Amino acid sequence: MPSTSELVVHDDAIRANTAYFASVTGNQLMAVLKADAFGHGAIAQSVLDAGATSIGVTSIDEALKLRNAGVRAPILSWLNAIDADFGAAVQAEVDIAVSSLALLHAVGRAASLVGQRARVHLHVDVGMARDGAPTDAWATLCHIARELEALGSVRVVGVMGHMSCADRPDHPQNQRERLIFANAVRTARRRGLAPSVTHLAATAATLTGVGSGFGVHRIGAGLFGIDPSGTTDHLRPALSLTTHVVTTREIAAGTSVGYGLDHVADRRTNLALLPIGYGDGLPRAASNRADVLVRGRRRPLVGRFSMDMMVVDTGDDRIAPGESVTVFGPGAHGEPTVAEWAGWADTIEHEIVTRVGMRVGRIHRTKTPENHR
Ligand SMILES: *Cc1c(COP(=O)(O)O)cnc(C)c1O
């Protein structure tokens, strides 16, 4: 069977969202393309064309893939284990975020071995106790970083933090985290460092404004049309997931559907089998809640989702095998949105878009010629 499910990436929407963030950040936009660009694939050239000035990812591997694809813009990698290949990052001119003395020394050693200075962003924990150096370790981290600068192995080019509650602009924690970040930057300068970029805000902090005034904005979700703060209507969703009917059948009232037989048809109806399931990233928690769009109408998915299949109740409509079904999309034609899927599964949109599995083919749709490398 050919690939019957497709994830269409709307590059136009990503470019429009990028241009929007470039404008609201005063062209201080780091496009966050971690996790395969939140599941959207090869879109680095699109976001750079549309106004992003640098790129952020988690691992050095992700950064090197972008370099190998020809990306020349600055790239920051902010999450690496102590034994990561920092030497390769330094040679590829990938900036490295550092949140501990152990990481700082590992980066410094790797840089000395390859004979090139590492470009480092020191990362301070402003409140969520996840990544970043605890504030009581910050002054020492800055001090040792300055010593490594004097020895020639690193240069501190940035200071970063990440906010915990920016999707709730009234939360008192926001003001606290802004103060902690401002103090951390001041401490870094007092210790003799001269970071040329600082960055605190991600999508929510940018849209609500609680992270403004701190230099570069690291934007991920927003580029893909996701607004964690629920405060804007300027963004366009950038994915459509479609599939095709495999087979159909008519069932009598009282017929049960799927594992556990927990859906029972209350009337004579038609079912269509779709070749996509939780193994392709659709959350099983949305079983017996979600809809799909069939022939321009919303129709309910019935029974528990299987790994590879789901069943849709098409009512009186007899669908032909091969007919197209929209699982989600921007919503302009009545199809469910990623936001609705997130609601059906009690999760956030980020989880829906990053989980679409590798059996689903990817298609990039754009009005301008695309760089496929
Ligand atoms: C994922 C991530 C971002 C991007 O966050 P969005 O809310 O998706 O814009 C920014 N900074 C860090 C440290 C991240 O891990």
TrEMBL record:
Return the Pfam families for the record.
Answer: Ala_racemase_C, Ala_racemase_N
Q: What is annotated as the active site? A: 34, 259
The UniProt catalytic activity note for this protein reads: L-alanine = D-alanine
Residue positions binding substrate: 130, 307
Q: In Gene Ontology terms, what is one molecular function of this protein?
A: alanine racemase activity
Q: Does the keyword NADP apply?
A: no
What residues bear N6-(pyridoxal phosphate)lysine in this entry? Answer: 34
Could you identify this protein by its name? Alanine racemase
